[in-house]
Give the backbone structure.
Amino acid sequence: MVVCGLACWRCRWLLPLLLGLAIIMGIIALAGRGWLESESEPYVQQASLWESCTRGPSDLNWNCESLMDYGWGRAAAATYLVGFVILVICFALAVIAFSIEILRFNFVRGIGGLLFVVAAFQIIGLVIYPVKFTEEIPLTGDNMFSWAYGFGWASTVVVIGCAFFFCCLPNWEDEVLGNIKPTYYYSSPERAPYLN
């Protein structure tokens, strides 16, 4: 019977795969224009991590203003971007760790620690952005923090989960590597009279 649990050698690529998924979600968050959007028609407000755009109810063209002109805009972008760069480094280290047997468990906990740093940077950026945006940018109509902002949080949640697994994985090193000998249970004839 083949069992592939959390700490299974055949499932060792699951954690790097999840980190790759977090990278994809981070790219969507960095490139997406849906950090803040108008909730209903007329759609007059739209913002990304980098700029805020508005238009009149009857206009077709967006008037955009860079958020990099604000200190908080640079801080939010920088912290999220630094977290993303460290996440890419962690992904590369995870691929190396699970590819080369000698190195695998020597620095897996280090990758977990770096992932907590990634999560901290991303959370700081994701908190600075809505707080300062709503304070300093005049909003028109009903607005909501939208899909790209959600991808930023989804990436952060995946990173936090992976960080815990990377930190705990060395505790099951023998199980992952298959170094545990099977335990056989038997009873002697004196202890099992029903076998006679």
User: Anything to note?
Assistant: The longest helix spans residues 71-99. The chain has one domain: 17-171.
